[in-house]
Fold:
Amino acid sequence: MAYKLSSRSMSKMDGVDQDMIDVVCRAIELTTVDFGVIQGMRTIEEQEALVAKGASQTMKSKHLEGRAVDLMAYLAGKGSWELSIYDEVADAMKAAAIELGVPIRWGAAWHIDDIREWDGTMEEAMNDYIDLRRSQGRRPFIDAPHFELV
Structure:
C-alpha cells in the first residue's frame, strides 16, 4: 500500500532543511508502515521543557536548527509508540537516504553516524546499539521516532 504525508505532516516540516524534507517525502513512498511528522523545528523553550522531563538529553538538538524530525508510526490509522514498528520506518528512511545521498542518524542507533553505511536492517542496528550501551554499563537512550541530518 502506498502512503502519503498529510498536509499537517508537511506543515510540521516548515523551516526544516530541504534534504530532510526530501528524505521524509521519499520514505513515505517506500515504507511498509504508515507514518506522519509530529515535530520538525523546536523553540528553545520547547527544548528546555523536553530536557527537563527527560524526553531529550541535550540543548544542542538538531530540531533547533531545522535538521531533525520526529515521526509517528500509525497502525490501523492510530498513532503507535510500539518500538518494533519504528525499525520498519527507519528501514524506509535508510532506503530514501541512500537513494537521495543524504546522511541520516537515527535516534535508536546513535552509534551509527550515517545509517546509509549500516550493513543490515535498522532493527539490527538498534539491537547493536542496545548491546553496545549495555556492554559499557550504560543505559541505551532509544528515541526511535527521531531522525537527524549528519
Residues 30 and 68 are 19 Å apart (CA to CA).
